[in-house]
UniProtKB/TrEMBL annotation:
GO terms for molecular function: ATP binding; ATP-dependent protein folding chaperone. InterPro entries: ATPase_NBD, Heat_shock_70_CS, Hsp_70_fam. Keywords: ATP-binding, Nucleotide-binding. Pfam families: HSP70. The keyword ATP-binding applies. The keyword Nucleotide-binding applies. It comes from the Eukaryota. This is Hsp70-like protein. It comes from Allomyces macrogynus (strain ATCC 38327).
Amino acid sequence: MTHEFAHPDEADGVHPIRHQVVFDFGTSHSGFARATRDFPDSLTDKLSAGAGSSSSPLKKLNIDYYIKYKTSWPGGQEPYAKTRTALLYDLQGRLVAWGNEAHHKYLMMHRGKQKNHIYIDRFKLFLDDSRKHEDPAMNQLKTLGKDIDDVIADFLGPLASQVGEYCQFLDTEDWNPYEVRWCLTVPAMWSDAAKAKMRQAMQKAGLIRSAKTTTRLEFCSEPLAGLLFETFSAQSRSVIKADDPVVVVDMGGGTVDLTVMCGSGSGFKELVQGLGASCGSTMLDSAFLKMFRDVIGSKDYDNVIKKSPQLENKLRNQWERRKKAFTGAESEFRVAIQVPSAMYNVCQHDDGVVPGTGGAELEDGELYLSRDTMVMLYEPIVDQIHGLVLSMLNACQSKGINVAHILCVGGFSQSKYLVGELRHRLMEKDAAKIVVSLNGGAAVLLGAPIYACRPELLLKQVARVSYGAQVSVPYRPERHGLRESLGDRLFQAPDGLRVKGVFSPVIRKGQALTPGIVATKKYRAESFTDTIIRASWFVSKLESPIFTDTSDCKCIGVLEVQVTPSQDYANRDTVEVTISMSPSGLMFHAKSLSTNKPVDCRIEFHD
């Protein structure tokens, strides 16, 4: 399977924008949505009509009329807004199948043929730098020269082909991906490095000309997308007024993201610093597989999976159905997982109750899961999500914010047991505020086009970390401490004693930011012969760290800015760098103060 698009030599501006397309790239499933050409104007009309009426619900839109999305996918068995985020390669790294078809072909393969293929799914987890994700399939692909952005590009290319076919069906006109303004949904907790990899993947898939300079790619945070859908869609049952503070809990496959937003005039403001953790539904899946592996015996389980890797995917499929069926309401809940014969034959336990499983029983080749088993598997994840919600409510209370709704979106929000436990654990007044989107994961997919067409709806966002550059500055004992405590941080420069490795803050944690230019920094060449200024950029969970070499700081990339050599030290070139912030991440632009002209400026983000 190949996916090829022409790579034009012209700049973005040569190609008119004919389409607004959103990719909802998910851990387990992904899809796309396309806004009709009259949607931006209709959205503007609704926003204007609703302006100023803070005490009444915002005007609703018939989203299905304006936003089109695919529900019939190759290899799909029933209508659904998304296809599996899965790929099947041969041993040379050539793509054999994609999406639902990749999953189906792999499961149906004879064992001998299956050994000649590489199946990979859930690879979005490799972009979450808050946890370490391991997958032998990715290790195999790396030996073939594929990095994670190559794998994502291999998925996005065919997804874009589906967009093209769909648009041609609707519009009967030629399709060109360079005539699209793309929008990608991303977890709000993602790092700039993760977003940079998505840009690179979009470029490698042939969908944008440049990962660094394109103006045709936006990112929309998943919680914001879910809120926009529930606020503006006539298909939503949520009654959100313009000035209602809303805690949005986006429960996805990999992450659970929380943000607090409130309508304000012509858009939405984030009110407090967001929270997030890697405790989505795939963590529950991993907990089940770990328990099942322990039941069989870890060594024997691994040996069987090594010979027949597709068996693990078959177990996941069974678990997925059982997981969805669990509500917690049935005290006699009992469902069976069929144990593959190769595992049952080597299982270290006899038939009967298996210790450490909450009462799960082996019986005639099946493992029966009890209610206590399900509660045991869910509990650590429910604990973590409940803790996040409590922390967010406490943060709001400390700022005098009276939360009106706790809005749950994302595929994992459809778990009746999870939401029921949240209601049970929260105080009664807070439990009553929980609203669950009827559209689940589709709320994010269908809300993102609203942001794509009107990004100015996001009026303010709150920084989750501090950003700063590593610089050298004149030594100040009241700021930097005694000389003898600084060690080799202190050095003699032509203009006096200086301290290196200093964190120069540009954005402080908790700072309310208006999307756009948030700071301007001046940099001067260290030597009059320099042609490039390099500045390492760091993030910190502290509001104002002093030095960059402490455990609270992490280097995220190196900024390189072009400078002009001068005749002497006193006349070293100086450049002015402007830093912009948006859901798409940090953006840098620079100009020389000596010529007042733009100069080359780029940043390479680290993992």
